[in-house]
Design brief:
- The protein is of the alpha/beta class and 449 residues long.
- It has 2 domains: 156 residues, 3-Layer(aba) Sandwich (Rossmann fold); 245 residues, Dihydrodipicolinate Reductase, domain 2 (2-Layer Sandwich).
- Helix content is 34%, strand content 26%.
- A hairpin with a 2-residue loop joins strand 11 and strand 12.
- The longest helix is centred in the last third of the chain and has 21 residues.
């Protein structure tokens, strides 16, 4: 064992288990999201966590990130890790059954089978998106949700974007009739809801350059963009447009069209982000003229309860200086558009705008916005609405902009609350999860046809 790994183990394994708290299990932490769940401590979660993984760079990256959380100067964590390495971490975990809830991140193909096995073993499941990347696996997803309900277990996917303050406020204003009116129906050429998500292959997370495994670029293993990060966007659209309403994907959704196209990466770029000197054989089908055609860009058109929606899920190599990942969304109502923008005019920071549909009704819409903001100050003190010509922008105090990494702690807290009281999980979560994965996988299916 190297001195580096030995130091990590000494730092991480220092205290005794906390009796009476839930015990967490991490299986194959192949994605940095596994470590972000441990960015914070939780009063109902034992600091001792069991980790089952193959010995290799993915495990070492995870250990390094958790050790940095433990060693940070401000508000350090105090996680203790029981580390179990083997060729079959899943089988070893099921045999040992060392906790109450299991976390899955990383490889997406076959994730639903690991989820089903864990639920059958009586474990709660807190799994990173996506649970499925193929439409053919939708029945397994339904089976998993039925199994969890029958056993009184929680199966929950990590929808962090619901906790972004601009998304929360957009949801509020879309559902304020005095401001938004009713939904426009739109059309394929002019959708009533348009959302765009842009991610970047090369980025920094938790202060460290992100190292991606080679299998990340294999869409058969990890999924196309819509099936992966696109699940967040699909979730936000239905969570915003029809809050707390159970959607039936058989009746409420029609997926009309899907497209996909590649991002071309050079061998030098691939080596920079993976550390691999050459493209592996598994990526041979995607190599053309010495470059990797990473099939990671998607668009999808669908209707949601008759409302036309268009989504674009895109990957670039690297963000412009000062920028990062982007989420923009526009919801069109009969009185106003509620728009989330994150471009250069906003200094690449998400901002929320209200744009009256009829200039003659501007004064009434602006008055309704001010009234709503005044009421919202109970939950968000300091929130303001600022008029700028033909539109209004919400001025959001910085203290509410906690950032993407902090959202993992917020959604983990919600999961732990549901674990304590399984019947408290909203009934619509199940049906809307099915609706979300139907849209994401059907969009990919149509793109491939």
């Amino acid at each position: 064992m190297s001195n580096y790994l030995l130091g990590l183990l000494i730092l991480l394994m220092t205290t005794q288990p906390l009796s009476g708290a839930f015990r967490l299990i991490i299986v194959d932490p192949g994605h940095f999201h596994a470590s972000l769940i441990q960015r914070d401590m939780y009063s109902t979660l034992d600091p001792r966590v069991s980790v089952y993984a193959r010995l290799g760079p993915e495990l070492l990256d995870y250990l390094n990130r958790v050790s940095l959380f433990n060693a940070r100067k401000d508000n350090p964590t105090h996680w203790d890790l029981d580390i179990h390495t083997s060729a079959d971490p899943m089988a070893a975990m099921l045999h040992d059954h060392p906790g109450d809830a299991v976390v899955f991140t990383g490889r997406n193909r076959g994730k639903i089978d690991r989820i089903l096995a864990s639920l059958n073993a009586g474990l709660h499941v807190f799994a990173d998106k996506p649970w499925i990347i193929s439409l053919a696996d939708l029945p397994k997803l339904e089976q998993a949700l039925d199994l969890a309900e029958r056993k009184g277990l929680i199966g929950y996917d990590i929808m962090t974007e619901r906790y972004e303050v601009t998304s929360l406020l957009q949801r509020v204003f879309v559902n304020t009739p005095e401001v938004f009116g009713a939904f426009e129906k739109g059309s394929t050429g002019s959708p009533a809801v348009y959302a765009k998500s842009i991610h970047h292959v090369m980025k920094v997370v938790g202060g460290l350059p992100l190292r991606r495994p080679a299998w990340f670029f294999d869409i058969a293993e990890y999924g196309e963009a819509l099936a992966d990060v696109g699940t967040h966007v699909v979730d936000l659209v239905q969570w915003t447009a029809f809050p707390d309403i159970a959607l039936d994907y058989h009746q409420d959704i029609e997926v009309l069209a899907g497209r996909h196209w590649p991002l071309s990466l050079t061998q030098a770029q691939f080596q920079q982000v993976t550390g691999e000197a050459a493209f592996p054989a598994t990526l041979a089908p995607y190599l053309h003229n010495g470059k990797l055609d990473y099939l990671c860009n998607n668009s999808v058109d669908y209707t949601l309860r008759g409302v036309h929606v268009k989504l674009e899920i895109l990957w670039n190599w690297e963000a412009a200086p000062g920028a990062g990942d982007v989420y923009e969304a526009s919801f069109h109502g009969t009185k106003a558009r509620i728009e989330l923008r994150q471009g250069k005019p906003e200094n690449f920071i998400p901002e929320l705008y209200i744009v009256p549909a009829d200039p003659d009704q501007r004064a009434d819409v602006f008055a309704a916005v001010r009234n709503k903001v005044a009421a919202l100050r109970k939950a968000w003190p300091g929130l303001e609405a600022r008029e700028s010509g033909t539109e209004m922008r919400l001025a959001i105090p910085e203290k509410y902009r906690v950032g993407h990494e902090a959202h993992f702690g917020q959604v983990a807290t919600r999961f732990l609350e549901y674990m304590q009281s399984p019947k408290s999980i909203p009934a619509w979560e199940r049906s809307n999860m099915l609706a979300k994965y139907f849209i994401s996988t059907m969009g990919v299916e149509l793109a491939n046809r």
